[in-house]
Amino acid sequence: MLAALGISQAVDTTESGLVKYFFPLIRAAFGLDLGALGILTAIPLICRTVCGPIWATIADRFGRRRILILVTGVWGVFTIAAGCAPTYEALLVLFTISSIGTVASEPILNGLLPEVFRASERGRAFGLVRGIGAAVGIVLVPTVGMLSADPQGWRYALWVMGLVSILSGLMILRWVPASAPVGGGNDPDRPRPAFRILDALALFRIPTIVLMAVMLPLVTSVAVLPFYSTFLVDVRGYEPWESVILLGVNTLGIAVSSVIGGRLGDRWDRRFGPRCRIMLMQIYLVVFAVTVAAVTQLPFDGRGFVYPATLVMGLVFSIGFSGCVLPMITTVVPLQLGATTFSLLLSLVQGSVSAFLAIFAGEVAERIGLAGMFWWLMTVPFLLNAVLWIGFYRIYPRDRARQERRTATMEVHAVGSS
After folding, report:
1. For the segment 54-67, what is each residue's pLDDT rounded down to a tens digit?
2. How far is CA 87 from CA 16, 26, 38, 254, in A?
3. Would you say the pTM of this structure is higher than 0.85?
């Protein structure tokens, strides 16, 4: 099951990220500037903001397996259609429709995993799914990237990914059972409490959730990293096909860091207590900021530097979310509000801010260059975020203990009533 879900997430992530891989070719085909890359990057983020909670609600109402089959499998036809776009305007419309479906897997999966795994194992679960997804991306990205040697390669890539998306839907249909218990005994098609505005507002009574909402806009990698492929072409001088290969190297690092980050966070948490996830997150933020600065600011463009540096950037990339952010969120909110929490934080808060930032980043890159954009919009915010995380040391252990007491009380009542 985890393999099927990880593959689904990989396909959806790769689909929505194709424009960043192939933007140099799309730019040449339609005569665009870097502002267009900001718009194309923002489209999936806007869809994530608007449609993430909607998809979570639909999945809660009709069953997560059914909706995953729809958005991962059937929705692939719109990605194929985007590859046929005759103009930039048509590409925007078709890519938007495609993105509406590809953004659905994240809130659905994030809501499902906490119900299947215990709190002490959730870092490993999140890490495995993200790691499997990244591992599949290791194959998908370079394979599709070979098409970038052709000026029309971006079209072929969209066609290929649309077909792969349909195939992944069939894999979910085959491998994820419709009614058999999964993990902790949950049914992937069992209706669950839907996203509700009142529940979302109530979550802001939890200080940890409030601070999470404040810190997520400073995780700017969602909006800024899509510019890395174009940075490799424009600043480092690599051909578009090799820039995609480099993104495959980065994806290799992400696959490893997803698994290591999840396991490391769980191990530190069991051995040293809740504050250790906070410490791990601060270490991650500083190391990632320094790594991005080294990759984008140092005047080294030889393969002996760029390939290892890109790999290291990936090796750091997923540690914070797999090992810290996602597991921490699940331990301070009631289990039945997990999907609501992730929809609120990742879709509404991070998605909306990242969409604006992506458009802004394109304009900044036009004015001060891609290297300057990476410094001011990624390195600096990540360092500021490391300082902001000091606030979690006091509030997170308290919120977690409060939720553990509520859960224990509910279990006692459940046993007594039975």
Report:
1. 887 787 777 777 88
2. 19, 10, 18, 34
3. no
